[in-house]
Amino acid sequence: MYEERLGNSETKRYELEDLVTSLEEQLRTAARPSSPTSLAKYASSAAQIENETLQDQVTHLQNKIRTLEDMLEDARAAAEKDEVVVRERIKRYKDKEESTKKEAVEVKKEMERVIRAEEQTRQRLGEIEEAFRENHLTLENARAEIETLRGELAVSNSKLCITFLGCLIFSTPRTRKTYESAPLIERRRVK
Q: Where are the domains of the chain?
């Protein structure tokens, strides 16, 4: 946009300078008389009118050139200000981009750490589950062993009770006689 305005101003300036040069050339040619006798009357009044007209045009064009130069200077100053603002914005954006890149690197590192920690946790969890299974199997084996021992103990206790009862029974004289006189089948039940 600035370059367009600058280009337009330069073009108008060159056109006006060309017009001023053309008018000055016309002024010089009009000031030279081609034939001294015939143009003497006409030359003085026509030249004076044309000279005044050309002077007015030159003044007008010079004013226009000054205005265009002022506009060009204002456009240059605005362009410089805009350039400074744009450079500051670019710098801010670059700083933001750098900080965003740094944050992205940090986030990536953090994600890698989290992934490693998750893998270690999963591995540890697998080890714990395996130890739990082994402990559970050991516990089941111990329970089975206890049940076996209880059964054996019950059998031993019942044998012991029978033996003890047998001892009690045979230790009293009256029971011994009754036992010996009892038929063989009843004796087996007592044992």
A: 2-89, 154-190
